[in-house]
Structure to design on (482 residues):
């Protein structure tokens, strides 16, 4: 076999700082060991901080405005119901055409059952197959106190993500007996909320200080100089005004417990790869679709903004290039993972001409671009560019943002209207629009937009979408099961 196998272990809502920032509370021994065996990319960023659009860009290599997946899809409470368009071929389909076996385990979030529709039949515990997107194990039991939908301590049963990781390990066993190259994707729901974590992993963080809060916490909706889009919550759990100090501490404790729990799963997965002799003939990557606010700026989850807490992502790749134990400082994008893995695996005829230069090892970018279009049917048009010092965000229907990350790493002071940074802002604006034009982005040409936060079906931004039977996501009042 000349070309290498491909393994992608992708998580949901995993913060960059857990792996890359010294002193972070997260205990991740297996991922830290993987860093020593692979190449780290500390300047990795999502293409958009929202599940479906990010995943659409991952699996097609296109921006959301190019493949049409600009909002979350699927599930009874998501608006609108939809899927990745069938004409948009994924990298998995292209790899199958190149002779690869493909397995997709876990979260797909691009249309229920549509992986099978694309000819990818090995879809265990995946909403791309027959598993419900928001489904969880039937045998799970929780301890009190519990704060829904933020966290719950699991006292018995095996959570769905552990079952998915175990299926991935079993699949490695069968692939080790095959002569065909394979692409195995293990896609977990965690550490996306609800942080339902076995008790032993929660207790790992019992020593978290009683007064724990993120350094840039501020009561929600009290910051000034921020876009209108940041002035309201758009999913009930995003309204954090009812959370107490202890609620925040316990939420963080469960979030990091979730990360450590997954780290343990990943360690077992890696050990199985080595035991089966698959490590040296496989290109392996660990990443996440976006981050998590976890109290930064008063927010939980994510939203229509480009703060580093949701934009920066973990990115570790063990490839063919001899950069073991090293870090590369070039800026890389979530949407370029598959061009990187395919190039490193040496698979001919899969990448188009314009994709061949997008490998993490081929670029020396010192900046990154990203966008945002919609959330739960609401319109939030933002485009952004970030380099080592500055971050600039532009919107056709909202306030611009400019942050000097050297002087203000917590992104508290919006300096878009500061005359002292006029030259910086103008240069970043020009750079951003040149990129938008190169990507055929309609926003670069003055297309009329609905008011920020408005629904595409005509409802006002002041209306709240009915989330139907998802009572777990109703406001904070009465949520605590003490």
């Amino acid at each position: 076999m000349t070309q290498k196998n491909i393994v992608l272990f992708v998580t949901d809502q995993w913060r960059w700082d857990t792996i890359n920032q010294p002193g972070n509370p997260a205990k991740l021994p297996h991922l830290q060991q993987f860093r020593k065996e692979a190449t780290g990319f500390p300047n990795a960023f999502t293409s958009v901080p929202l599940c479906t659009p990010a995943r659409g860009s991952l699996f097609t290599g296109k921006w959301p405005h190019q493949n049409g997946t600009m909002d979350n899809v699927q599930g009874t409470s998501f608006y609108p119901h939809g899927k990745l368009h069938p004409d948009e071929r994924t990298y998995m389909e292209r790899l199958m055409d190149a002779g690869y076996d493909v397995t997709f385990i876990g979260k797909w979030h691009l249309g229920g059952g549509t992986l099978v529709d694309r000819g990818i039949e090995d879809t265990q515990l995946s909403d791309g197959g027959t598993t419900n997107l928001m489904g969880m194990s039937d045998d799970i039991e929780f301890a009190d106190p519990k704060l829904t939908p933020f966290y719950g301590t699991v006292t018995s049963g095996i959570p769905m993500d552990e079952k998915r990781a175990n299926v991935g390990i079993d699949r490695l066993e069968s692939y080790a007996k095959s002569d065909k190259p394979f692409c195995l994707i293990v896609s977990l729901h965690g550490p996306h909320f609800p942080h339902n974590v076995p008790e032993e992993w929660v207790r790992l963080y019992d020593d978290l200080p009683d007064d724990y809060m993120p350094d840039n916490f501020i009561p929600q909706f009290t910051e000034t100089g921020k876009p209108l889009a940041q002035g309201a919550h758009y999913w009930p759990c995003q309204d954090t005004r009812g959370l107490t100090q202890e609620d925040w501490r316990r939420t963080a404790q469960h979030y990091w417990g979730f990360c450590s729990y997954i780290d343990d799963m990943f360690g077992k997965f890696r050990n199985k790869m080595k035991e089966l002799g698959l490590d040296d003939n496989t290109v392996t990557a660990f990443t996440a679709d976006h981050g998590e606010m976890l109290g930064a700026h008063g927010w939980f989850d994510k939203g229509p903004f480009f703060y580093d807490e949701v934009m920066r992502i973990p990115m570790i790749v063990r490839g063919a290039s001899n950069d073991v134990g090293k870090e590369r400082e070039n800026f890389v994008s979530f949407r370029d993972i598959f061009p990187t893995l395919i190039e490193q695996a040496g698979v001919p005829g899969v990448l188009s001409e314009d994709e061949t230069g997008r490998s993490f090892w081929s670029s020396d970018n010192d900046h990154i671009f990203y966008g945002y279009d919609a959330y739960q049917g609401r319109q939030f048009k933002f485009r952004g560019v970030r380099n080592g010092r500055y971050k600039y965000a532009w919107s056709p229907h909202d306030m611009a943002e400019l942050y000097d990350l050297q002087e203000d790493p917590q992104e508290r002071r919006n300096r878009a209207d500061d005359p002292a940074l006029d030259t910086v802002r103008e240069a970043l604006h020009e750079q951003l629009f040149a990129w938008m034009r190169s990507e055929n982005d309609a926003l670069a040409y003055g297309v009329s937009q609905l008011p920020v936060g408005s629904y595409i079906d005509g409802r006002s931004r002041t209306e709240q979408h009915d989330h139907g039977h998802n009572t777990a996501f109703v406001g904070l009042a009465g949520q605590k099961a003490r």
